[in-house]
């Protein structure tokens, strides 16, 4: 009798434990009704098995709202970097800086981070929103590509290897009646053709993740003449009139929205024209259909609706622009949607897959002892993704699976209520990035201690 009661008690405990584990799993993945669809979307993506407890930790830091806020470096960022580097400035563990901002080259952002944080940051440690677009170069290097976005995105696209590329500013300059009220007419197109003009360098803010978010420094604001002498010259040929891009001779194949556009009016108008004209903004949809022209692919570098700076409330991000453009498109095409729309940037998988490659390469360069793992697995005890935006940073890390561990801080977008987000729930929620590193290193030590015991 006593044995039977003991057995029932064990069964009840086992059932209770299973229920707790199930609740924890639901809690960890954030699979509430609101997030379930997104989670299912990722179920077909590569998944890594259980974390590797003997491996070193690795880190992926968001920038704005975690390390900086607007123009100010957060004090906890300096503290966190000290914990991750030797007195000589060497990294103890693999680290990447992964942001949905952009508009500069990875090298320029690495310089900024080095100056802000007082540690040596290499370009290979930087993943901007548009960095995964490099993987498109083998397919698109020779195809006409239209880029949109503030900052130095045209130069960035060229640095990746896109060779037949033009900016929406150049398209507006070539077709002045297409966007007659554009705030930034021809100057930027002329200056941006140069590789490193001072105007471009100073007008290369990181659209949503920098301590230098000055507005685009167009001479038009100072009342300069609208047409630069260099536009369309032999030295700087017009990509439309002289090179034939965005014409029937060379229709736009792909639109890359690399950062938030500096002029939503101009870019929403021109992107709509290019999309409905099948790569040729002057062509009507009917003519495009009659010609059998293939649809244009549209790729946004990040889906963020909001971002945070010094202003007391969050600001509109690229996701807001995307919503506006697609809403206009739908209203004007009887509810249709462009054929190919893709979003890069957190929480989507591209930056996480790239981060894994870069972190593994760093671990090897640092000479860390990496345990043997099965193919497809990663030799890290955890990749700690520290971010302030639940919908981007937390959701992305939770969906990335495998060794990724989401860590939410309260120095940016997320301000509560409560210590954690109810919808996109982080594995760890702390006050700031220094506490995040403490928690990660504590977790790592415990894993090792258990493995040695
Ligand atoms: Mg952020």
UniProtKB/TrEMBL annotation:
Q: Where is the composition biased (Low complexity)?
A: 194-235
Q: Which InterPro entries match?
A: CDP-alcohol_PTase-I, HAD-like_sf, HAD-SF_hydro_IIA, HAD_sf
Region span, Disordered: 192-235
Q: Name one GO biological process term.
A: glycerophospholipid biosynthetic process
User: What would be one Gene Ontology cellular-component term for the protein?
Assistant: mitochondrion
PANTHER family attached to this UniProt entry: CAT EYE SYNDROME CRITICAL REGION PROTEIN 5, CDP-DIACYLGLYCEROL--GLYCEROL-3-PHOSPHATE 3-PHOSPHATIDYLTRANSFERASE-RELATED
Q: What is this protein called?
A: Uncharacterized protein
Q: Which organism is it from?
A: Astrephomene gubernaculifera
């Amino acid at each position: 009798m006593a044995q039977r009661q003991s057995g029932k008690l064990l069964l009840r405990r086992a059932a209770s434990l299973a229920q707790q584990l199930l609740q924890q799993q639901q809690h960890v993945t954030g699979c509430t009704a609101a997030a379930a669809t997104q989670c299912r979307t990722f179920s077909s993506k590569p998944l890594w098995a259980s974390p590797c407890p003997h491996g070193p930790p690795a880190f992926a830091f968001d920038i704005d709202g975690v390390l900086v806020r607007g123009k100010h470096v957060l004090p906890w960022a300096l503290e966190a970097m000290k914990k991750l580097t030797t007195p000589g400035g060497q990294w103890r563990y693999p680290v990447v800086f992964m942001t949905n901002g952009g508009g500069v080259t990875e090298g320029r952002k690495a310089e900024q981070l080095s100056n802000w944080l007082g540690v040596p940051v290499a370009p290979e440690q930087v993943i901007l929103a548009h960095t995964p677009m490099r993987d498109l170069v083998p397919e698109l290097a020779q195809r006409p590509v239209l880029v949109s976005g503030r900052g130095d995105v045209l130069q960035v696209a060229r640095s990746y290897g896109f060779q037949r590329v033009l900016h929406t500013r150049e398209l507006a300059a070539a077709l002045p009646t297409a966007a007659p009220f554009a705030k930034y007419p021809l100057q930027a197109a002329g200056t941006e053709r140069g590789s490193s003009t001072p105007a471009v360098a100073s007008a290369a803010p990181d659209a949503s993740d920098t301590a230098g978010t000055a507005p685009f420094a167009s001479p038009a604001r100072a009342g300069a003449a609208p047409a630069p002498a260099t536009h369309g010259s032999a030295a700087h040929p017009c990509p439309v009139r002289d090179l034939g891009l965005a014409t029937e001779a060379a229709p736009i194949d792909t639109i890359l929205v690399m950062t938030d556009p500096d002029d939503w009016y101009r870019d929403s108008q021109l992107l709509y024209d290019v999309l409905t004209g099948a790569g040729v903004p002057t062509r009507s949809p009917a003519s495009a259909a009659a010609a059998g022209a293939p649809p244009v692919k549209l790729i946004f570098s990040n889906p963020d609706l909001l971002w945070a700076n010094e202003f007391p409330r969050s600001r509109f991000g690229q996701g807001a622009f995307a919503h506006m453009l697609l809403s206009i498109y739908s209203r004007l095409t009887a509810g249709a949607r462009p054929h190919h729309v893709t979003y890069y940037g957190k929480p989507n998988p591209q930056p996480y897959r790239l981060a894994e490659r870069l972190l593994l390469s760093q671990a090897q360069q640092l000479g860390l002892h990496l345990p043997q793992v099965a193919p497809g697995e990663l030799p890290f005890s955890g990749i700690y993704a520290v971010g302030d935006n639940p919908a981007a940073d937390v959701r992305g890390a939770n969906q990335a699976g495998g060794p990724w561990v989401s860590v939410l801080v309260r120095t940016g977008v997320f301000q509560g209520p409560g210590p954690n987000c109810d919808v996109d729930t982080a594995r760890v929620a702390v006050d700031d990035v220094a506490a995040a590193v403490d928690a990660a290193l504590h977790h790592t030590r415990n894993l090792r201690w258990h493995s040695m015991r």
